[in-house]
Amino acid sequence: MVNQAARRFRAAAAALGRLPRLGLHGQVVVVGGVAFSVEGLRTWLHLGARLEVQTPDGAAVAGEVVALRDGLATALAFGPLDGIGPGQPVALAPPACLAVDESWLGRVLDPLGRPLDGRGPLRPGQAPRPLRATPPPAGRRARLGPRLDLGVRVLDAFATCRRGQRLGLFAASGVGKSTLLAMLAADADCDVAVLGLVGERGRELREFLEDDLGPEGLARSVVVCATSDSPALLRREAAYAAMTVAEHFAAQGKQVLLLMDSVTRFAMALREIGLAAGEPPATRGYTPGVFAELPRLLERAGPREEGNPGAVTGLFTVLVEGDDHDEPVADAVRGILDGHVVLDRRIGEGGRYPAVDVLRSLSRTVPGCLSEAERALMLRARRILALQAEMADLVRLGAYRAGTDPAVDEALRLGPRIEAVLAQGKGERGTVEEAFAALARAMEAPDGA
What we know:
449 residues; alpha/beta; nine-stranded mixed β-sheet; elongated; ATP-binding
């Protein structure tokens, strides 16, 4: 009797398996430019909903709803729109998530979790995390931790960083930004480094990984990359994916260094998406949604909730076009972050790398992480460099005579020594204590030393 019932159950299960599966489907009605419109799923769609479009050759193209109006949903695709036309079937897809795993360390992936390093598939973790998440509640968020050794003397001495802090690196192209990021990824005192490369040149990825980052830096890093030829959705998603990976490791109590290059390209991707969705262009063509989305991303970095020792220390690069540090994205990001570091082309052209302009850089958390002696030393060094810069033109013209002003004489004597301390090559690692010790030696050395 039992065997007979089991046979009937197996037969019923097989019959059910042969029935066509039911699902929610719509269809493409308009395709144009970088967007397409969908009808038939109005009740179940919302902003940010994921879709899959079936092409005639049987492939599936992922998309995301960016606008809803007049009974139609406007969507952008994560890949080329080749083969997509009116009448193509559209189905709902699961929300965007990443199942991060410890085995991802040392790997390079795209924002959708697909490997880019040719080393086989990535092992998924146990608990998928949504790419769009809210920051920890402000009232329950832990305070910043102790100071962090970044391993770069000029930053450790003049823009000292604390665990969970967020710093902006403001630079034009070609000023040594990628090399500085690689130094931080390899030398900073952290458990895990996460690199989000948003809109990178395709040819530069391997050069950055093999020449700048190196095997040791890559071994403790996860690299998320979307190249400049990727659709705007994929470039935007690279920033969210990198933040999600960083949050995963921070939730385990680890100290995570998140390096994102660059927030400007993230904003440009948001601008493309906003314009395609029908948002009006505002400041320099950026849509209002760009400036609403920037704090939603950047506020996710920082300490976790009280009781979790993990933190995401974020360093976000900002490309300043034409060395204009007051352009809209730079201005908005500077107001959100906890400090800014300015890389100056003229300093790099003078041969000093990292080309950090000390006088235009600051960390807002310095008062809470330096001793009185260190703070006094740093302020004295700033005054000396400021006076040296102020007198530089007069000295070149021969209009200043030594002995006229003791303060100027001191600045002209000690300024070059401080600049020598700030110069640092790849492979040179140090601590905050060592940076201040080197600065003190340079400023206390007798003439001729």
